[in-house]
Write a structure and sequence with these properties.
This protein is of the alpha/beta class and 160 residues long. It has six helices and six strands, in the order H-E-H-H-E-E-E-E-E-H-H-H. Helices cover 49% and strands 24% of the residues. Helix 5 runs antiparallel to helix 6.
Amino acid sequence: MRITDLLDVRSISLNAAPADKSQTLDAAVSLMTRSGKINDEEAYRKQVYAREEESTTGIGEGIAIPHGKCDAVEKPGLAAMVIPGGVGFGERVTLLFLIAAPNTEDNVHLDVLSKLSMMLMDEDFTKSLRAAKTPEEFLAIIDQADEEKKSVDERLADMG
């Protein structure tokens, strides 16, 4: 699965300016709903907030990856926000990815979380995402990183 298969240009915001964490989550949920993958925005919002109350989804380096898994999600999806001024998630977050996962056995959100986390460890990658001028450019940066990771994985598999 590719990250760009889950992310839609309609669910990317490059100049978000939320005042606080709850405004950030609300904006991200709205972005996710625009992609057509959510059938009940309020139920999904409640799930995202419930998960955030368990522990912050800020992962360091100015990045947060909140997520919600519930029946309100029809298809797995991602929403993304660049928040130039930053917002508090236990730290100042300037890059956020929201994961939506259907309530299924396969735990697709864990695969997405794992893959995304690996990609976000690359400082040049996150710097490029934060500097993207259009949602299309943002997607292209992710697509290129996805392609490079796939090539490395294939080479490693060939060596094994």
